[in-house]
Write a structure and sequence with these properties.
This protein has a single domain, classed as Rossmann fold (3-Layer(aba) Sandwich). It is about 35% helix and about 15% strand. The chain has seven helices and nine strands. The protein has a seven-stranded mixed β-sheet, sandwiched between helices. Strands 8-9 form a two-stranded antiparallel ribbon. Helix 5 crosses helix 6. It is globular, with a radius of gyration of 17 Å. The termini are far apart.
């Protein structure tokens, strides 16, 4: 009988699907990258998701974020995400934390145990806090670097943070991670030079420009990496 996973089982096997059903992934940041990542993880068989983001959905999110619709403007991103993901996978467990990652909230976050963390946030101090938590608790973490003002998806790849080049966010994070005592960290990044101009948001702050496709592609790459590792399908991924 056909099931939701009939096309997946031939690739990872029933054992792989069973392994995924027992795993919990924490996705931090439910924006362009994190929304695509969370949905792919849900569709891919992960048993539980922990979604963390304190933002509300804005009209400017619609060009790149899966959970951003005209009908969801004003909703907390994590609540809009949970509603859609439960429609896709009624059996999936989802915890939502509408909070910002900070020194005040990191212990709350640490109370939610997981098998893997996806860092899909932009704030540099928050990225350091997540990396320190992951290193302290021996939790695998994949961190997304800058996707703004990028246009070529073929240039994205996984690397240790200390082997990256060109990306301005990587440059800033190498210094911060080193200062925080982070020994190594797998990141997804692109060495593509910035294309186009920066944008101005409603608070008159300078923000990166973004296409409809680059952030979701990065999110799907992160989800793929996590699913391969947690299903034990590809033991070379670590």
């Amino acid at each position: 009988m056909e099931t939701q996973f009939s096309r997946l089982i031939p690739i990872i096997g029933k054992e792989g699907l069973e392994a995924l059903s027992t795993k919990t992934v924490m996705v931090v940041g439910i924006g362009g990258v994190g929304s695509a990542c969370a949905e792919a993880l849900a569709r891919g068989g992960i048993g539980k998701l922990i979604l963390i983001d304190d933002d509300d959905i804005k009209i400017s999110n619609i060009n790149r974020q899966l959970f951003a619709l005209h009908s969801t403007i004003g909703m907390k991103k994590v609540y809009a995400a949970k509603k859609r993901l439960k429609d896709i996978r009624p059996d999936i467990c989802i915890d939502t934390l509408p909070i910002f990652v900070s020194s005040e909230t990191i212990e709350i976050i640490n109370q939610h145990k997981c098998d893997l963390i996806i860092d899909a946030i932009d704030d540099t101090d928050a990225k350091v806090l997540l990396a320190k938590l992951a290193q302290q608790e021996s939790i695998p973490l994949y961190a997304c670097m800058g996707t703004g003002n990028k246009t070529d998806p073929s240039m994205f790849s996984f690397s240790d943070i200390y082997s990256t080049n060109t990306c301005p966010l990587c440059r800033a994070m190498r210094q911060k991670y080193r200062k925080a005592g982070i020994d190594k960290l797998t990141v997804l990044y692109s060495p593509e030079e910035r294309k186009g101009k920066l944008a101005i948001d409603e608070d008159n702050k300078i923000v990166p420009g973004s296409t409809s496709y680059i952030p979701p592609i990065a999110g799907l790459m992160l989800a793929g990496r996590a699913l391969l590792q947690l299903s034990n399908f590809d033991t070379t991924v670590s």
